[in-house]
Design a protein that fits this description.
It is a multi-pass membrane protein. InterPro entries: GPCR_Rhodpsn, GPCR_Rhodpsn_7TM. This is G-protein coupled receptors family 1 profile domain-containing protein. The protein has 267 residues and is mainly alpha-helical. It has one domain: Rhodopsin 7-helix transmembrane proteins (Rhopdopsin 7-helix transmembrane proteins, Up-down Bundle), CATH 1.20.1070. The protein has a two-stranded antiparallel sheet. Strand 1 and strand 2 form a beta hairpin.
């Protein structure tokens, strides 16, 4: 068990919690969830908490992976501090949503946000845009760009020094280079997927509070599309992050082979 495994486990738990919220999201999009104190103060904000935990975990994974690869001789984070970090991720996600829990009130038409003024609402929307999209995207992009540059930098002098040596060493170098390129491609996929899947919802909420009347009408439609892309991003996380490490790829193959054998034995 490594710190990265703990991050992936936390990401998996968070993404699995979305299974419970997806039916509620679909129902809320098609109709409207019953406006009760419990629904308005807890259920709806908790949907966003799950997304926040997922985003903060992805960001922590990127920063930690960058630290480990760029400083390979530094001691690895202990399990205790990894547990503390995961706990802080959950705690900070709840803290970010506390204002939403406080101002969301039940009305006949559904749950509505009742802010002291529209300026407060706009300030909170802008803060959410920075906290759950802009800042994480910048950190993830910078971390993975630095990792990509470091992997390429490590490759070139090695290839030169081993060019005239034994074919076995050249084969090992070629295999390592191929794996490094695959890692860089996967890292690029992570950044692009995060940027594209999270963007529609973030832009929609910004337009809803800062846009014109026509833009606000468009934003209402975009919010529904943003929910779909955010859920799609969570569904893609196991596939994307599973390709990063060899043991996860082997685990996928082993598990799928086991399922196929079970299906064939029952048929």
């Amino acid at each position: 068990r490594t710190v990265n495994d703990m991050f992936i486990m936390n990401l998996a738990v968070t993404d699995l919690t979305l299974i419970f919220f997806i039916p509620l999201n679909i129902y809320d999009l098609l109709r409207t969830l019953p406006a009760t104190v419990f629904t308005c103060h807890f259920v709806k904000p908790l949907m966003t908490v799950s997304f926040l935990v997922s985003i903060f975990t992805l960001t922590s994974m990127a920063v930690y992976r960058c630290r480990v690869i760029l400083n390979p001789f530094r001691p690895e984070m202990k399990d205790f501090w990894a547990f503390i970090l995961v706990g802080l991720i959950w705690l900070s996600s709840f803290i970010v949503m506390v204002p939403m829990m406080v101002v969301t009130k039940p009305f006949k038409s559904g749950c509505k946000e009742k802010w002291p003024s529209f300026t407060h609402r706009k300030a909170y929307t802008a803060a959410l845009f920075v906290i759950q999209y802009l800042l994480p995207l910048m950190l993830i992009a910078v971390a993975y760009i630095r990792i990509g540059l470091d992997l390429n930098k490590a490759y070139f002098p090695t290839s030169f020094s081993f060019r005239t040596k034994h074919s076995e060493k050249q084969a090992n170098l070629k295999a390592r280079t191929k794996e490094n390129k695959q890692v860089v491609k996967t890292l690029a996929t992570i950044v692009i997927m995060f940027a594209l899947c999270m963007l529609p919802g973030q832009v929609a909420w910004m337009l809803l509070d800062f846009g014109s009347e026509k833009q606000k009408q468009t934003a209402v439609v975009c919010i529904k599309f943003g929910v779909i892309t955010s859920v799609f991003h969570s569904c893609m996380n196991p596939l994307i992050y599973g390709t990063l490490t060899r043991q996860f790829r082997r685990g996928y193959v082993k598990y799928l082979s086991y399922l196929l054998c079970c299906c064939q034995s029952h048929s």
